[in-house]
Design a protein that fits this description.
There is one protein chain. This protein is of the alpha+beta class and 411 residues long. Helices cover 50% and strands 18% of the residues. It contains 15 helices and 12 strands. The strands form 2 sheets. Strands 1, 3, 4, 5, 6, 7, 8, 9, 11 and 12 form a 10-stranded mixed beta sheet that branches. A two-stranded antiparallel sheet has the order 2-10. Helix 3 packs antiparallel against helix 10, helix 3 packs antiparallel against helix 14 and helix 10 packs across helix 12. The longest helix is centred in the N-terminal third of the chain and has 40 residues. The radius of gyration is 32 Å and the shape is elongated.
């Protein structure tokens, strides 16, 4: 029989324990543990949520990896055509973990109404395009039908539609400059069949999605000429490795760039979330540990007579320390239990009801995204329990300073 655990249970279950002088301090310690795990859960969930949502949105607009012509042009406009007849298209034969390879071509243009105008990038895509991203953020209408022999249907963002005072089904006039300065601009009419809103202002304010054949026609390209290829990966975590593998598998005249390389400032910014989360976790564990140390010391000092009697009966210092460490562990677990209930409830409410909103101009999202996995929850709880327990080991040595003769004398 583990008599240390037995005594610890009796202390916890006793009415005197619940009504003792130490009761307020114990409640504060439990509250500190609960508050700490709540803040840690929210910090991890929001940090991971923002990272995943921002990188998924960028991949939705640009793909995980873009294969373009190897030249000095770093703009969003396709200036040099690439043959669609490549060994890696429509799929890489020797590289695993690739979800889709899709062709695209971009053309800068100007949308015009009677009173307003707006600069856009017309992204032409083909029937191989993965529409999952735009289906998720579609506000009105539908995706353009690219199966038709030729389509004038386009997908516009809510931002552009609002600025130009347009609506679903309207016809929009577009002007595209010729590559040669001696030629007049090309004018086209398009029909708005879908409106999306991703909340990523950097792209929402300029991106129009339509038929690749329109861009080919504007650039006087053949049907086998495209602006580049977008590669979608099964897992974003493999982007660096797959980027190197793809670069080594394509022709010498082509270049493969990951979105991390194309937009380093954005990914450096979201990587800072990890540092902030680790800082918050460290502070919360430290605060919770200090509160538990205080509660443990109060528990020990409140039961000096009991410690003296146990020592007189032959209990070792180690056994007596175990009694109080078991007691403290119960308090930690109680705080973790309530902290998880409250913290996960807050995360659930935010995930389903989108209570907290953000400025998309700053954070690239309309609402605070949250994401947390079971492994992260378990690691946070286990880490908090272990760290707080380790912080209690040294203070528990105060038991060794209590002498039976002096403590029993005043019992």
């Amino acid at each position: 029989m583990n008599y240390e655990l037995f005594i610890a249970k009796r202390i916890i279950a006793g009415k005197k324990y619940k009504n003792s002088i130490s009761s307020p301090i114990i409640k504060i310690a439990i509250s500190a543990i609960a508050l700490g795990i709540i803040i840690m859960l929210i910090a991890v969930a929001t940090g991971a949520g923002l990272q995943y949502k921002i990188r998924d949105k960028m991949a939705g607009f640009k793909g995980h990896i873009q294969i373009v012509n190897y030249d000095s042009n770093n703009s969003d406009v396709s200036t040099v055509a690439i043959s669609k007849n490549q060994d890696f298209y429509p799929e890489f034969k020797d590289i695993e973990g690739i979800k889709n390879v899709q062709v695209f071509a971009n053309k800068a243009g100007l949308l015009r109404t009677k009173t307003d105008f707006e600069g856009v990038v017309f992204k032409g895509v083909s029937t191989d395009y993965n529409w999952d991203f735009f289906n998720e953020y579609l506000v009105e209408g539908r995706i353009p039908n690219l199966a038709l022999p030729r389509t004038k249907e386009v997908l516009l963002s809510q931002t552009i539609v609002n600025r130009l005072h347009l609506k679903l089904g309207d016809t929009i006039f577009a002007t595209f400059l010729k590559t040669s300065t001696s030629k007049l601009p090309s004018n086209r009419k398009y029909t708005i069949v879908g409106i999306y809103s991703s909340g990523f202002a950097q792209f929402d304010k300029m991106m129009m999605i339509g038929d690749l054949r329109e861009v080919q026609n504007l650039n006087k390209w053949t049907e086998n000429e495209v602006g580049g290829f977008e590669v979608l990966l099964e897992s974003f975590d493999d982007i660096e490795i797959k980027g190197q593998e793809i670069y080594g598998d394509i022709g010498a005249t082509l270049n493969a760039k990951t979105i991390v390389e194309s937009y380093p400032s954005v990914f450096e910014w979201i990587q800072l979330f990890d540092n902030n989360v680790w800082f918050i976790i460290a502070i919360m564990i430290l605060v919770a540990g200090i509160n538990m140390i205080t509660a443990l010391l109060v528990l020990i000092l409140e039961r000096v007579q009991m410690i003296g009697i146990l020592k007189a009966l032959g209990s070792a210092n180690t056994s007596i320390r175990k009694i109080f460490l078991y007691n403290a562990s119960y308090l930690i677990l109680k705080g973790l239990f309530w902290g998880n209930i409250i913290g996960l409830s807050i995360i659930f409410i935010q995930d389903y009801f989108k209570v907290i909103t953000l400025n998309p101009e700053t954070y690239y999202v309309n609402t605070m995204p949250v994401y947390i996995s079971l492994s992260q929850i378990l690691l946070l709880n286990l880490g908090t329990l272990v760290m707080c327990f380790l912080m209690l080991i040294i203070p528990s040595y105060i038991v060794t300073k209590i002498h039976p003769s002096k403590s029993i004398k005043f019992a």
